[in-house]
Amino acid sequence: MGFTDLFKKKRELETIGNKKIEVPAAPPSKKDMPEFPTPKEIPEFRKEGAKIERPQPKKSASSIERIERKAVTSQKKELEERDDLKLKKPIFVYLDSYKEIMKEVNQINNTLKEGDDSLKRVAEFKEDEDEEFSRWESQIKDIQKKLIYADKTLFAAQK
User: Fold this and answer.
1) E strand or H helix at 74, and its extent?
2) How high is the pLDDT of residue 78?
3) What is the dihedral of CA 119, 125, 128, 133, to 10 degrees?
4) CA distances from residue 65 to 61, 115, 119 in whole angstroms, order as listed
5) Using one digit for the tens of pLDDT, what is the confidence trace for 53-102?
6) How far is C-alpha 57 from the chain's CA centre?
7) Residues linked to residue 19 through DSSP beta bridges, in sequence order
8) Are 17 and 11 in contact (CB under 8 A)?
9) Whether 69 contacts 61, CB under 8 Å
10) What pTM value is reported for the model?
């Protein structure tokens, strides 16, 4: 495959079957583009301290996120108000103690992750049980309908 074969494939792509595909025009060059004014040339920027506010996209937070955010802010306020939690002087921790603390924090995180995984598995089991229960319920209703039909046909024959 030579260098010229690349151009042949391009030509084949431009015409498929009897239809000719229009190739879009190339974007304008830098010479054709209009020149934009610098910020100093724009009247809003000439004023000292003038700011142009950009509209911020609205973020829709779920109700859970709003509740969590509200709880966190209330807890922060409570903790800020307590004087006994404020540091009076710098705290120094020995490296060995710090390593032990970090090890315990990691163990707590692992335990929390295991608990979360267990809760997810329990939820899956509950969903499976609910699905099985609804299937049994539908089968029992189907059997009841069949028994009622059989009962009506048997007693209708006796009359």
Assistant:
1) helix 63-81
2) 78
3) -110
4) 6, 22, 20
5) 666 666 666 778 888 888 888 888 877 777 776 777 777 888 898 999 99
6) 17
7) 16
8) no
9) yes
10) 0.35
Location of structure tokens 């039909």: 149
Per-residue DSSP letters for 97-146?
Answer: HHHHHHHHHHHHHHHHHHHHHHHHHHHHHHHHHHHHHHHHHHHHHHHHHH
**Is 44 within 8 Å of 52 (Cβ atoms)?**
yes
Exposure on the CB side of residue 126, measured as CA atoms within 13 A: 6
Do residues 139 and 131 lie in contact, with contact meaning Cβ atoms separated by under 8 Å?
A: no
Backbone torsion region of residue 24, taken as left when φ is above 0, otherwise alpha when ψ lies between -120 and 50, otherwise beta: beta
- How far is 108 from 123, CA to CA, in rounded Å? 22
Helix (H) or strand (E) holding 51, with range, is: none
Q: How confident is the model over 28-55, as pLDDT tens digits?
A: 676 776 777 776 676 665 555 556 566 6
d(CA 87, CA 30): 60
